[in-house]
Amino acid sequence: MSESNFRVKQIDHVEVIVPDQYQAAEWYRLVFGLQIMEDFEFWAADGPLMISSDGGHTKLALFQGDPPGFSQPVGFQRVAFQVDDQGFMTFLRRLEQHPVFDHDGREVHVLQVIDHDLSYSLYFCDPYGNRYEVTTYDYESVRAKLNT
Length: 148
Known about the structure:
The protein is α/β, with parallel strands linked by helices. 20% of the residues lie in helices and 24% in strands.
């Protein structure tokens, strides 16, 4: 492969700092459906606990440490997860059982879905202040479901 043919295939993982890897993994399981990747779990002894919902194509690497908290982020601004229309609506229904909060600690509700004219997004934080977004480009389908 020549240098001119180099291109990134996909994002492999995003590193997230959390105070307790397994407690955080449970939150990510409940909110996003991410599961601990058993083949990589031995890394957690002194490194990341890897979690994924797609067999490891896209992963979060949970590192134990002091998270940034809810102040202005130091590293990445936000990680956005793309879902289809059904996934977006399922996520919104899931908020009733597993609430999420904004960077000021206020609960995020379905009414806070942002209409970007080509996509819909909902913005929130994990319990440690790391910022996330769930977004869908199935615009017409979600618009119809949100307006019913």
